[in-house]
Amino acid sequence: MAQRHVPQWVKSALELGPVIGFFVAYLWVKDEVFTFGGTEYDGFIVATAVFIPVILASMGLLWWLTGHISRMQIVTAVLVVVFGGLTVWLNDDRFIKMKPTMVYSLLGGILAVGLLRNQSYLRVVMGELLPMEQEGWMILTKRMTGFFFLLAISNEIIWRTQSTETWVYFETFVLTGATFVFFIAQAGVIQKYSTAEED
């Protein structure tokens, strides 16, 4: 399917919508206990069970509208299904809480492998959208590698030491906000090494 252009707000809504939906669903049912097949599930487990088909539907709609889904979105969806499925099947909230750790560790690991080969895998993904000199890509890749590993470590600390509610707030707002702030903070590097005018 050929890639098609859709308004950025539509893409953002489909990417962030399931996360916000999970947050709202959790707040709605967090103090409830549901019984299915003779087994009791707390609100967090039920919210996770709803989150899995919602994110898959959102990704399917994104693919239908744009004709494209990034590899990272596919990996994220697979991890949500695997860890979310284990959370519901085993009635154990630890698995879905590990998911951000796995995602950020995987991202950081992939970029780190590229750096060891003196390459920027980030450039492979974003080169057409963000034309920069090789030196700029290497700087940005090094920073992003460290940033992803920092997020992975932060998630591990939060879910292992704090309450489920604190982790939900952290996963919904802090991780998302930190990523947004990080990219804004890289404006200097992007501007310094940009080749947009040359192109």
From TrEMBL:
<keyword id="KW-0997">Cell inner membrane</keyword>
<feature type="transmembrane region" description="Helical">
    <location>
        <begin position="12"/>
        <end position="29"/>
    </location>
</feature>
<protein>
    <recommendedName>
        <fullName>Inner membrane-spanning protein YciB</fullName>
    </recommendedName>
</protein>
<comment type="function">
    <text>Plays a role in cell envelope biogenesis, maintenance of cell envelope integrity and membrane homeostasis.</text>
</comment>
<feature type="transmembrane region" description="Helical">
    <location>
        <begin position="102"/>
        <end position="122"/>
    </location>
</feature>
<dbReference type="GO" id="GO:0005886">
    <property type="term" value="C:plasma membrane"/>
</dbReference>
<feature type="transmembrane region" description="Helical">
    <location>
        <begin position="167"/>
        <end position="185"/>
    </location>
</feature>
<dbReference type="InterPro" id="IPR006008">
    <property type="entry name" value="YciB"/>
</dbReference>
<keyword id="KW-0472">Membrane</keyword>
<feature type="transmembrane region" description="Helical">
    <location>
        <begin position="44"/>
        <end position="65"/>
    </location>
</feature>
<comment type="similarity">
    <text>Belongs to the YciB family.</text>
</comment>
<dbReference type="Pfam" id="PF04279">
    <property type="entry name" value="IspA"/>
</dbReference>
<keyword id="KW-1133">Transmembrane helix</keyword>
<feature type="transmembrane region" description="Helical">
    <location>
        <begin position="72"/>
        <end position="90"/>
    </location>
</feature>
<keyword id="KW-1003">Cell membrane</keyword>
<keyword id="KW-0812">Transmembrane</keyword>
